[in-house]
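Lay summary

Proteins are chains of building blocks that fold into shapes. Our project writes down both the chain and a compact code for its shape. Here are two examples, one after the other.
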Amino acid sequence: MGNVDYTKYSKLSPFELKDNLIELAQSRTDRLMLNAGRGNPNFLATIPRRAFFQLGLFSTTESEFSFSYMPEGLGGYPRPVGLQSRFDNFVMQNQDKQGVIFLGKAVSYVRDQLGLDPDAFLLEMVEGILGCNYPVPDRMLRISETIIKEYVLREMGIQGMAKQNLDLFAVEGGTAAMAYIFNSLKENKIISNGDRIAIGTPIFTPYLEIPKLNDYQLEEVFIEADPKLGWQYPESELRKLEDPSIKAFFLVNPSNPPSVKMSDEGLAILADIVKKRPDLLILTDDVYGTFADNFKSLFAICPDNTILVYSFSKYFGATGWRLGVIALTNNNILDKKLAALSKKDKKELEERYSSLTTDPASIKFIDRLVADSRNVALNHTAGLSTPQQVQMVLFALFNMMDSRQSYKKAVKSVVRERDAALYRQLGVEVPQDPNAVDYYTLVNLENTSRTLYGDEFADWVMKNKNPTELLFRVADETGVVLLPGSGFGVLHPSARASLANLNEYQYAAIGDSLRRFAEESYQEYLKTKKGKK
């Protein structure tokens, strides 16, 4: 193993790095690969899933009742008349099933706490889980949207905003949200080739890569978080956004991979900047916000300037479900930018959307997102599948109905205990930060070297060790996969570990491996130092 040339890996792209690290870690059969490079959680919410499957059984029976005279296996649309009564009987007869009990409480909660029509809600859920109709409306089912609005307002720390002032588009996770938003911004001439956009770094790699594509050819201006400030954006960096040539600011909050939320001070600075630059567009991807304590989204601070992206994937362990939303206020800056386009551009866009309505100019940006997601011509079949929307609603209700927030406390505890196990075995104190979310951790090569063996050793490491090569050596010799922070725009040498997808003892093993490599490097350093004497 010692003869492997790891320098060949240093110039790979982030996704090539990931694939090669995994291949190297899997190259031996006498050990278990520990992939801490991927953010897919190994925990998930079970009760709303139980509810989903039980609702599916009830709904299928309802369908079969509609065509009871037909051959077995053929059903029809569920009947609204008497549906609530039959559902109540279903709940009473299945009090031993956790998912059914939750469903009964959910209908009561929707009625008593959210003030919604329980009959209409139940019918939407039954029809939705059967998937027997196109999504209507195509942007999001009506009652489902109202419930998810309530969830988003609560979880994103948004106070004082009426639900009717908010629009949601249910999408196939945060991934689809990114693709749809970039596309519609370009199609609607809000951004154009050569425009300057600011990106808060470090950040999820696609936010760095998509703007460079031939489709967009955007000039990137980096707003760099400072590790010495707990990965907060210095005011001097945020003030770059006062430059009127910067069209938009894209960020992930809490960040990926530093995994910290923006401080109240940072939020206040951004609010001040928006007052000076009411034309500034902000996109905030808040998928990790649900893991933070007392989280407040930029959407809560600058709602009319901000596109909010939220995904259910990480918090509920639902990456395979592909569930997310895009949120905009009714008074958003995008609709104002559409109204301010030139006559030529307006005419071109009216032609683009003319198949949808006789008044295409009146189509809001969020509805253009829906149309563009299906190349306009297929707008009538747009929208997230209705069973997916039902599962999204059940996830949201599960969280809102949990007055003790037991699930939230549990998942926060899981990732933080794993964080502690890794650093304990590494021999370094766990970074303490009230803004930390701990879904990921960045192991700083320089700081770790300095803490373990002193300043001179750390200086030697920085001059003589390539962190990417080190990660490949770790993968090769131990089977542990960590991703280089550089792939996310991290400027200092570091390794990103997801704290979501392995068990606690495995993170302790990762800490052991890193400590062993640090010790080997220190012995190498001592030999070189002795040789100089």
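And here is the second example, written the same way.
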Amino acid sequence: MKRFKLYLLVLLVSFSVQAGERASQPAVNAAQQADKTHTGTGARKANRLINSSSPYLLQHAYNPVDWYPWGEEAFAQARKQNKPIFLSIGYSTCHWCHVMARESFENEKIAALLNKYFICIKVDREERPDIDSVYMAATQLINGHGGWPMTVFLDHRLRPFHAATYYPPFTTDKGPGLEDILLKVHQLWTKQPELIEENAIQVTQQIRAYADDTRQQAALADDINEQALREIVSIYDDGFGGFSAAPKFPRPGIFSFLNGLSLQSSLRPQKQDNKKSAAQMMRTTLDAMADGGIFDHIGGGFHRYAVDDSWQVPHFEKMLYTQALMVIAYSDFYRVSPSQKYKQVVAQTLDFVLQDMRAAGGGFYSALDADSERTDKPGEHGEGAYYLWSEAELKKRLSADEFDFAREYFHVREQGNIYSDPRNEFENLNVLYVDEAFRGETLSPQQIEWLDSIRGKLEKIRHQRPMPHLDDKVITAWNGMMITALAKASRVFNNAQWQREAINSIKFIEENLYDSDSNKLLRHYRQKQADSEGVLADYVWLISGLLAVYRNDGDEQWLQRAVSLQKRQDELFLDKSSGAYFESTANDASLLFRFKSIYDDALPSANAIALSNLRMLSALAARPAQKKAWAAQAEQLVRSFAAAVNRYPSGAAMLLSVELKQKL
């Protein structure tokens, strides 16, 4: 990867990499949550973000920073005042976004520098994934990795010339802070504009080249699944499961591919080992996650990722998309290995979603924060405060027998059981995970009774604690994922209630996030406002949900709505020259480019889900001509991405999983 001349900011870039690595492990930092509750009645006045519907932007509405939302007003001021743009991207439940807000954006000295030398823009990455994608590509290119909060410096053409993740406010012996970054960028902007220009050109050229995975047509390699499996095996942790070192994230694309291999019934004898290997990796990984602290053993549901190798210490955010994708993974693997354990994980996860993330009318909220108010230090926030326990509290709240069992079953210790804690944030606190001695063991009737009682008591106690911040916007794509998950779980586990919940969510989206006049989806809804037009992910996941619901009940209205949305999706996003889909519309001239990607990240590739929908529509079509047309469109999409998939098969695991389903 080419390094740019702005690395002559050298010191700054090298430190931002270290900071970003720290930002990827939020659970080890003791910094408190940013103040999100200014009322405007104190000394500070509201800035322009006060009129936003975004919970994230509203968290910054009383910063002393003179923030602008993304838009022409900010761009015009940058040109008029000849200032670079300071772009900050994050989301409302992001732990490190809170840290940077408290340390820097609430700091009068830092705010004065930002206001004097920059035009400052805030973007909610969940509301505008199209903007986030562009500048995440720049951050990864310059920094070697990405993350949030994202800190990007732009010129007047909105081209990035420097990017990083979290910066502390002031320089230490470990490296420079944001104050020195701002002063250095200002100096370069005024004294060496040619360097800024050169770097902006180079960065933009590079990220534009990486934005399109359809640069050549090809066919998938004959042994593409074997190649993908070899790559997956090479990154697999055979001790604890998962497909990386710490921090460990769920990998829904890989999960889907391995489940697909595990379900194959027509493999030639020489390929049976691949099937066994796929099933073994899934079993080890799903068991470790279900037993680890990444799964909430009291309230149900999954935290976003684990900061350690063994899935024991989570980063405590709970995202709607994580719940949906994990329900899909466990439901699919239940078809391979029908364990009561997997059924219970699915049920507990959906119970959590329906209880804590369900909006009135049937939609689902976006996320619960990692941070919440500490009960031992009122007024202070800490990561995981809602979920963690001291041994003394458990001993006080449980019966003697329950406490003795809980101590052994959940590996509770007087000094706490969180061993990666360099800032002593989790001193004497325990995250609940299943001790090794109980994994794979059958509990006695008495132990089951104790465990049920423990969970009930601790859940009541937690509900008396201050709740983490709830991001109460409803995102179309993430609701589409949950609709798909509910419908799949309903079919696999024969639960009619989950099908009804899926239908309720469809109705919510149709009432609040669908413009019937234009036949367009909107991206997000909050407090009776629906803003921003939908991106590709919103369309493909809602279509996926509609098709999943239709498979369950055969009601033609769901299929008809899916077909209608598919046609609108083609009009808005289809690149007819390649057969693939752009991930955003062409309506925002401020975007440097539109992505066409097939590689998965935390979420599966939207183009892979589009392919799945095309395959399903072809299978369901009543007219031979329409069946043939959907199939031809699916084949063209595969050809458009095949060269990219052949280069890095496991990176496009979701596409490969879709193609595997054609063989079932």
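What can we say about the second shape? The chain is about 50% helix and 10% strand.
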